[in-house]
Design goal:
By secondary structure, this protein is of the alpha/beta class. Helix content is 41%, strand content 19%. The strands form two sheets. The chain has a seven-stranded mixed β-sheet with strand order 3-2-1-4-7-5-8. Strands 6-9 form a two-stranded parallel ribbon. Helix 2 links the parallel strand 2 and strand 3.
């Protein structure tokens, strides 16, 4: 299967080269048929140019495609842009700041090869975890996860994860709201992934850059839950009529 790893970036020149080299070691030739699609929102630190230079070094091992957008338009839209340009039958979504270890990607791909439609990198399974998070971040994450379980009836342990692999056919069938950066939650809530498998991993606090989390993202998350819950009710009423 052809694999496309989608990596949205903004001011990540310090971490992206190592990410690409570590990816080349685990999914580059001869390990897999893969490509990396870097979507850079005109990073002021020159991340796009750095990605292109590293990609040139890795071209015989792991093709790296760099897409440059004219401005900072958000993580979700960056991922969706990358998916549209990617060639893979299987999509891997991950951050560029090394919080998602590339060495876990083969396990996610193994789950897909074994029949899963969606493979989730989970911080909340035995063997997973989070390093260097303050108590308030842990409480906030715990609350957001429990809220997703209650509002949407999803059973995935870590529906807030930003690290996952998915069959293209499943991903492209989701009508994304584009609020915030919780694309996985939208995939899970859509019900399109008949078989979901979770793979434990240890989340490493950002090695560089700045966190996406802020009051605006929290409000976007609440709005997203409301919209997804309404969709779920509509699907339930339509199913009852059949």
């Amino acid at each position: 299967m052809l694999v496309s790893v989608i990596v949205p970036t903004y001011s990540e020149r310090d971490t992206l080269p190592l990410l690409l080299r570590r990816l080349s070691a685990v999914v580059g030739r001869p390990h897999a048929e893969a490509e990396v699609v870097v979507v850079d929102d005109s990073s002021p630190d020159g991340t796009g140019a750095v990605a292109a230079a590293v990609g040139a070094d890795l071209r015989d091992v792991l093709p790296v495609v760099v897409l440059s957008r004219p401005g900072k338009a958000g993580l979700s839209s960056a991922v969706l842009t990358g998916v549209r340009q990617a060639h893979g039958d299987v999509l891997v979504i991950m951050d560029s700041d090394l919080s998602h270890p590339p060495e876990v990607v083969p396990a996610l791909l193994g789950a897909i090869a074994g029949g899963a439609d969606l493979a989730v990198g989970s911080r909340y399974l035995p063997g997973g975890g989070i390093t260097r998070w303050p108590v308030w971040r842990r409480v906030l994450s715990w609350g957001a996860t429990r809220l997703a379980h209650a509002a949407l009836g999803v059973s995935v342990h870590d529906p807030m994860s930003g690290f996952f692999a998915c069959r293209r056919s499943v991903f492209e069938g989701v009508e994304f709201e584009g609020l915030g950066y919780k694309l996985l939650l939208e995939v899970v809530a859509s019900g399109r992934a008949a078989r979901i498998q979770e793979v434990p991993y240890r989340f490493e606090e950002r090695a560089g850059g700045s966190s996406k989390l802020g009051s605006g993202e929290i409000m976007n998350y609440v709005r997203l839950l409301g919209r997804l819950r309404r969709r779920r009710r509509v699907r339930g009423r339509e199913a009852a009529r059949r």
